[in-house]
Amino acid sequence: MNIRRATTADLMQMQHSNLTCLPENYHMKYYLYHALTWPECLYVCEDRAGHIVGYVLSKMEENAPADDPHGHITSVAVLRSHRKLKIATKLMDQAHRDMQHVFNANYASLHVRKSNTAAIHLYQNVLGYETKKVEAKYYADDEDALDMVKMFPKGLEKQKRDAQKKESGTKDMNDSHKSGKQNAGDKSKPKKKKNKKRSKGNGTG
To answer: pTM, whole model, 2 decimals?
Structure first.
């Protein structure tokens, strides 16, 4: 088995694998858009005869904030005849690697059918994804999808910094609130008038 970066010449076989394996299918122009825009994020696995037996189609999210770049796994499939060989894991690992090294991504996301327990096991127990939320009736047949996320080291560092900033901001706000209360308490206390002492005469006239 050979895993390599996909080219536009592979798109027809990738689409065939998709039609064979998955109910979620795409027009050829969608594959082409991925290949031309994010060529680093497409990988295929081919057998000794050069036939494609698996692929991963992924991309970078175009509307992500500048300080939070992240990728998305659009589709991954392996022919039934070549499953149980960890091909999907290797394909995903390659996509994750290039999301980080080429695009500086903080994390990767994907959607998976709630009923697809085998895929969920792979994403969660092998690849380290976590379920972020459930999106009701996400698919055309109204099945729910799990929205899953895999954090990369850079993303984990960002989360840590953001948490520290939030904690620091909350502490500053609490300190300011306490200080304001204290000042208000000081102002509410009536000031005592100081009695001026009269100077006594020394008796000379």
So the answer is: 0.76
Tell me if 41 sits within 8 A of 71, measured CB to CB: yes
Higher pLDDT, 85 or 171: 85
Q: Which two tokens stand for residue 80?
A: 């039934």
Torsion from C-alpha of 153, 155, 159, 160, nearest 10 degrees: 30
Rounded-to-integer distance, Cα 151 and Cα 93, Å: 13
Sign (positive or negative) of CA dihedral 58, 64, 68, 69 = positive
CB-based contacts of 23, cutoff 8 Å, min separation 6: 139, 141
The pLDDT value recorded for residue 202 is 43
Please tell me the least confidently modeled range out of 51-65, 107-121, 160-174, 186-200.
Answer: 186-200
Length reported for the chain: 205
Helix 28-37 / helix 11-21 crossing angle, nearest 10 deg: 130
Spatial separation of the C-alpha atoms in residues 93 and 88, rounded to whole Å: 8
pLDDT band for position 183 (50/70/90)? Answer: low
Q: Sort 95 into a burial class: Cβ within 10 Å, 0-12 / 13-18 / 19+.
A: buried
